[in-house]
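The authors assume throughout that readers already know how a fold can be written as discrete tokens. In essence, backbone conformation is discretised, so a fold becomes a row of integers matching the chain in length. A single example would do more here than another paragraph of explanation. For illustration, here is how one protein appears when written out as sequence plus structure tokens:

…
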Amino acid sequence: MSRKVTTYNVFVDSDGRYGNPVSIIDGESQNISNDKRQEIAKELGISETVFVDNYAERKISIYTPLREIDF
């Protein structure tokens, strides 16, 4: 199954330097288990991977390559 992953560089200075990447996966129309989310985050290998579960209710989850973290 293919998923659209959008990666942004966040916390940059006014010249776009520094910061760190964060990936966002729109999971609102996808059923992605917690184990699969962790697997995806580990595979992407960046600081944080954000899964959007429901835009209207502002439900998201955030995973690092090692674990889910609180938002």
